[in-house]
Description:
The protein is α/β, with parallel strands linked by helices.
Amino acid sequence: xxxxxxxxxxxxxxxxxxxxxxxxxxxxxxxxxxxxxxxxxxxxxxxxxxxxxxxxxxxxxxxxxxxxxxxxxxxxxxxxxxxxxxxxxxxxxxxxxxxxxxxxxxxxxxxxxxxxxxxxxxxxxxxxxxxxxxxxxxxxxxxxxxxxxxxxxxxxxxxxxxxxxxxxxxxxxxxxxxxxxxxxxxxxxxxxxxxxxxxxxxxxxxxxxxxxxxxxxxxxxxxxxxxxxxxxxxxxxxxxxxxxxxxxxxxxxxxxxxxxxxxxxxxxxxxxxxxxxxxxxxxxxxxxxxxxxxxxxxxxxxxxxxxxxxxxxxxxxxxxxxxxxxxxxxxxxxxxxxxxxxxxxxxxxxxxxxxxxxxxxxxxxxxxxxxxxxxxxxxxxxxxxxxxxxxxxxxxxxxxxxxxxxxxxxxxxxxxxxxxxxxxxxxxxxxxxxxxxxxxxxxxxxxxxxxxxxxxxxxxxxxxxxxxxxxxxxxxxxxxxxxxxxxxxxxxxxxxxxxxxxxxxxxxxxxxxxxxxxxxxxxxxxxxxxxxxxxxxxxxxxxxxxxxxxxxxxxxxxxxxxxxxxxxxxxxxxxxxxxxxxxxxxxxxxxxxxxxxxxxxxxxxxxxxxxxxxxxxxxxxxxxxxxxxxxxxxxxxxxxxxxxxxxxxxxxxxxxxxxxxxxxxxxxxxxxxxxxxxxxxxxxxxxxxxxxxxxxxxxxxxxxxxxxxxxxxxxxxxxxxxxxxxxxxxxxx
Length: 733
């Protein structure tokens, strides 16, 4: 068990924290941007290695040379109509236009008629035509439903979909003659188009994107047969079997970019309007040898510099956005989707490797660890790059950050190993006196000397009730284990409130509040410690009882008495010239010890003098609840001392505790007034609310109400002398 705890502390915990922080910050904007940069680099490298293949998609780009030969943009719509008719003759499967025709041509309406004629001719020849529409904040052209119907079957929270208040479709004539889809492709937070919507919302309706609508027309699948599950995928009954397109909860698809402009001629049959088709399209020249578009998808869009339809993609800061649609269409047709490696698997792998490395290199030279620290990131980056060839997106940035944090921790720890030797000596000395005193001694540069001075402090004494029985029932090793656990809890609480550990006397804890560092609220802090220790001991009792046969029954009933007193004491290094201890001496120290032992006679577990109560209330207000227990004369003193039980903290005290204190102190006043019958009645009532009840509370032999009931019955039968002042004389220390 001990070895497991050490391993967890030295190796596992730092790794888990480092990778946990890296994972947590992976969703920050800066970290996501860095990850996208690494993905773009991998994408460009992958594109340079990809083999040629016969594409199902052909892109016709209106480039700079096309604009030069065809004239100023925009061209007349009649020209577009002629190209549609031409492609229909070449028997393309679908021709999609990443060019918007949202408003009628009011200057030359005949152009709209020729564009419509081309679309009609194409549809009759078996080549479907898809035009673009878009979402908009204000209503535009009326949405008709002749061919393109809105998406119907959607599962999930549709409010997350990209959308606006209205939908702008192509002009009504085109709606009746052809299909349409949304061209919306907003950039990510860094300006790139990586996640594009395949479903958009326009008002109360939902529409397929231009890319997805084109694929549906290529496969001749009606939109009504498509099933959309947000956060999962879009399910399409394709001719060669069911297809699933992965999407997120917002209907976005992660584009698996295979090409930009440099790769398009090789991978997509990219054609400029200035060659091939352009001679027919622009110059109206009938030529043979049109690009092979039979049965393929033809996508037309802007590619000229200076036009608005360009943006940032992994290949360029200004790529024709028609290639975004082309990449999406190509991905879907070939089932070429990104597969994101789950972060949990990366986290588990990184944690496992790092823990093993920490354990291994803790026994090896620092040089070997430096080599390992440099090799692992290189190998991981290589693995992530190669994985991208098979579409696996392995995150690079946050795992490398986590690994880097671990190496900083590991190597830094080893570089500081020489300092630890000095720190251990300091820590060993600090086990006997307070850390504050050690620091003061180290800072002063002087050796410890004998001597002391008077300081106003609060002395703290605690002792385990019936400790002798523990010694008899437990073997030495188990007794040491028990006491170490108990004393650790007590000491931690004492020091957390600024107290100084004076000494351990067997099971007893002696502490000072207010020295060596002065504390104005030393009495208040000591009272807080008394209550925190009692509460912690209650938790330990529950723990020990839950451990079954490990401990005898008496351990689960352990109680500790605490005594406090405040006042001037002699504080300093005391002992012989060769061996001494920082401690306290004086009458007020002895009185604190009497409070601890006297608590037994009154059936309480935390007792203090009137001096401590007043000093506590001066700084802590009414947070600490005290119960007057009367006036006593301790052995070795002649003057009576008012004593109090520290009954609890305001925020912890129950209603029963408050009622008990009220009834008890009312009965105590009757007791001082010699109203024995009234006092008896009062103590009997307070007895019902006592926290510690013999036979019920573990280890509780009595309580103040029971004690005073016994004394009061005695005085009722045999009243005290006339000069009696209500003082109780203690017969024992």
